[in-house]
Amino acid sequence: MKAKTFEELKIENEELKAQLEQYKSVCAKQETLINIESLSVGMFHEIHNPLTILKSNLESLKDEVVSSGKMDEKRELLFKMAERGIDRMDQVASSLKRVIQGVNQQSDLSEKKVVDLKFLIKDTMNFVSPSFRKSGIILSQNLKDSCYVNAHPARLQQVFLNLLLNAKDAVSKSDIKEIEFEVVSDAKQAIILVKDTGHGIKPEDRAKVFQSFYTSKELGKGSGLGLSLSKQYIEDMNGFIDVESEPGQGACFIIRLDLVDSSELPKEDHSKKVVSKLTSGKLLIVHPKSEVAAVLQNSLSKQGFDVSISQNAMDARELVKKSDFDFVLVSYQLDSMNGLQFVSSLKNEVSSYLILLFDKSLSSLPEKTKESILSIAHGYLERPYDDRKFGELMAKIKSIDSMSA
Length: 405
Prior knowledge:
The chain is an alpha/beta fold. Helices cover 52% and strands 17% of the residues. The protein folds into three domains: 1-104; 111-265, Histidine kinase-like ATPase, C-terminal domain (Heat Shock Protein 90), CATH 3.30.565.10; 271-404, Rossmann fold (3-Layer(aba) Sandwich), CATH 3.40.50.2300. A hairpin with a 3-residue loop joins β4 and β5. α7 (271-277) crosses α12 (387-404). The N and C termini lie far apart (82 Å).
């Protein structure tokens, strides 16, 4: 075996140093992402909560205008524009939260899940669309019907994000800046196509694009890991990824994933039907924030419940004892006690269903507290509160009651 010359060793040493610096950069970015995830959850609540209140107030105002007979074509158009704006902001905020959490999420890697490609792609595109529009890029999608595959949702979304960001760089200097997501399928596989109108890839470079640390970007603008990780993630899901491209003709990345068997498809969501069947009864909301309680009251009243509100824990406790409430929704954060203490003090004294409300994620609480919640309360709801979550909880309560009857 021929010994390496000093110059060869020197070159190898420089290459190893460069790789080490790239590893350090990746580790630093990962640590930053963890911090961003924590901040994003807080930002989501800061954005989502006022939007929920704004939407509720807009609905109330619209009802008043209609009942007064003053609704005309111009006012109706203004209401629709406002509703679309609120919904759009809420979609972007929700996508931001899901995508950033997905980047760091490891809990879904133990087993694959049934994933709706249409939903996951739309969610990813909602996340990037503001910055892409700002760069003059036209994003389009051809998704048609829902298409289900077995995958790790967080990692698959990361692959989509990597491909979109690569495509963004590819079209940055093109006269026509277009990126399209398309999903087609044959009898056994879903085929995902990500096409761009960028500068294309040279034939000699196509074999390198999935190699670790290969990048055509300027120094400091890319780690060269995005596509290699994407390839690894797709192969871990028993899938296949490739690219077709010619210089000056753009690129098309192709992902193939096995379709799930029809028996594995998600069952129809009956939660809304359940809500319509359980639209009677007295309900008390115990929450220290009047604006949150008002939004819940507005939503549940429209479903047919007779809703009362109390902001004080001690007053609410006496009210529950004196009145025959069917449901009591209690915030975990009260003034003189926490919600768990409130529920525990009433569990054996009243026949009401006692449900805890969490403005923050339940995952932030200690394990012992979670166990106590599940053993003492009849159920719980995490913010954002909506009809679907309430319907699912009602279905669960009804199921438990029918089994114990």
